[in-house]
């Protein structure tokens, strides 16, 4: 029997080349036919090949830019206004006297009955009794409090100051309690508010000391109105600073001991249950009528991998996450790790003792060692911002002075009122919330849109053009396979 081998499809290379030229002439990819057709001169075909390669390179370049932009996950902010029918949540208002300690308390002697009655016999008073000489406990504490103690306290010299510090350093316990010193010897809310002579919310709700929650910071004691710690938060139904919180305050400049460059108040308007950052507030000088127009702004941000990289995790001891709270807690954690104690004004979450005099050098050094970038403190994913616009005028005028004297039986002179009184009014500028929501600034639809747009601009083709190339390649491969297939036929052998 004789065997014959025949190709199924004896398509020559010339025929395949002819198919390629036919495809190039009919494809929707612009310019390819001028390269593939033989009817054009060599120079023209080369020029068109250069054109085609150039625009293809430019297209690839723009594609790489689009891909990089997509990977970077940019965001865009959509701004809108919301006007709730039930009003807006009134912010927490924290009030701090720029003076840390009251002189009348600092000067109370140990033998005075008010020493025990006012709670001025704080830890460390009895231990330093033998080295403070004629100084009261408060004077001795202030003498050792800072490097300027010798200038602030009469009778405090370098020797006395060092003797007091040595007693604290030799103690096995941390006798000096800064938070206790700030709380007991600082201003109390009743004296600041002239015994709440005038304090109201929305004109008809009378407020008292129960509406103010004390908050200890490293710069002194503050008092927060509408803190939300009792479970209820006030809402404002009327707009205008005069229809929010209105309160008469007494700075008590005659009580000045250790301040922050000036006499007055620090006021911080913030969201409830957030960390109180005194650096974000504004100052009000004595003899001032301050009207604060508040604008509520709500931020909604996107977490990683988007560029905003917001965070919304829990902070131990702080109810609501904020970037400020995260930073201060990071500083506190560094101090706790290096010094084994807690900084004043930060929440006690691990039962660590409060930093005392013997920890001062370590605390100061740890503050310098903090790497804020390593803290990884980003903005909160959901945050309420109360933007404050403050305007000032002189207070009180002569008519108010007469009213205070005759109607409220105030004994202070008119000069005292002008040098100490502050009338603070805080309210919403508009009963609307500005919402700033971050959304993806460049999603998959944008990426595909730029792919297609640049493809049409530079190459004059579309996704279907790619399908044409895939179809042509498939046919070429299948042709090769069929060409190699053999049809084995058998015929009778002449010798059989």
TrEMBL record:
Q: Name one GO cellular component term.
A: plasma membrane
- Compartment list: Membrane
Which Pfam families does the record cross-reference, listed alphabetically? ASC
> What protein name is recorded for this chain?
Uncharacterized protein
Alphabetic keyword roster: Ion channel, Ion transport, Membrane, Sodium, Sodium channel, Sodium transport, Transmembrane, Transmembrane helix, Transport
- An example Gene Ontology molecular-function term: ligand-gated sodium channel activity
| TM annotation in the entry | 46-67
**Chief location category:** membrane
- Spell out the family assignment given in the record's similarity comment: Belongs to the amiloride-sensitive sodium channel (TC 1.A.6) family.
What is the protein's membrane topology class? Answer: Multi-pass membrane protein
């Amino acid at each position: 029997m004789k065997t014959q081998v025949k190709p199924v499809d004896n398509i020559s290379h010339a025929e395949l080349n002819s198919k390629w030229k036919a495809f190039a002439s009919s494809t929707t990819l612009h310019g390819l036919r001028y390269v593939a057709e033989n009817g054009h001169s060599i120079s023209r075909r080369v020029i068109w090949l250069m054109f085609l390669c150039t625009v293809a390179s430019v297209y690839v370049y723009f594609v790489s830019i689009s891909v990089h932009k997509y990977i970077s996950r940019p965001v865009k902010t959509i701004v809108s206004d919301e006007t709730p029918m039930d009003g807006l949540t009134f912010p927490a208002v924290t009030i701090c006297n720029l003076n840390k300690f009251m002189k009348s308390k600092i000067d109370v002697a140990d033998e005075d009955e008010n020493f025990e009655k006012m709670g001025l016999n704080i830890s460390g008073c009895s231990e330093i009794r033998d080295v403070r000489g004629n100084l009261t406990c408060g004077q001795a504490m202030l003498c050792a409090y800072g490097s300027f103690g010798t200038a602030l306290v009469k009778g405090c010299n370098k020797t006395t100051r060092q003797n007091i510090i040595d007693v604290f350093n030799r103690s096995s316990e941390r006798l000096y309690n800064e938070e206790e010193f700030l709380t007991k010897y600082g201003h109390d809310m009743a004296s600041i508010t002239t015994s709440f002579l005038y304090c109201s919310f929305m004109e008809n709700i009378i407020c008292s000391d129960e509406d103010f929650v004390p908050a200890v910071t490293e710069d002194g004691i503050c008092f927060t109105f509408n803190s939300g710690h009792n479970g209820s938060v006030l809402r404002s139904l009327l707009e205008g600073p005069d229809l929010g919180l209105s309160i008469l305050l007494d700075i008590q400049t005659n009580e000045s001991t250790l301040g922050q460059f000036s006499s007055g108040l620090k006021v911080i308007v913030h969201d409830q249950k957030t960390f109180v950052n005194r650096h974000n507030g504004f100052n009000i000088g004595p003899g001032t009528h301050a009207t604060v127009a508040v604008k509520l702004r709500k931020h909604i941000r996107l977490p990683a991998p988007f560029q905003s990289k917001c965070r919304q995790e829990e902070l131990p001891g702080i109810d609501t996450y904020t970037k400020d709270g995260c930073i201060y807690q990071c500083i506190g954690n560094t101090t706790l790790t290096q010094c084994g104690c807690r900084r004043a004004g930060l929440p006690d979450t691990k039962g660590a003792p409060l930093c005392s005099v013997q920890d001062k050098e370590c605390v100061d050094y740890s503050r310098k060692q903090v790497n804020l970038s390593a803290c990884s403190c980003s903005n909160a994913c959901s945050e309420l911002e109360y933007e404050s616009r403050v305007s000032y005028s002189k207070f009180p005028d002569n008519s108010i002075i007469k009213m205070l004297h005759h109607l409220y039986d105030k004994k202070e002179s008119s000069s005292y009122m002008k040098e100490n009184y502050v009338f603070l009014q805080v309210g919403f500028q508009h009963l609307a919330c500005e919402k700033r929501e971050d959304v993806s600034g460049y999603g998959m639809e944008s990426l595909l849109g730029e792919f297609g747009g640049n493809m049409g601009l530079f190459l004059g083709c579309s996704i279907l053009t790619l399908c044409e190339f895939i179809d042509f390649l498939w046919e070429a491969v299948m042709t090769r396979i069929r060409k190699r297939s053999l049809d084995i036929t058998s015929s009778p052998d002449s010798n059989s």
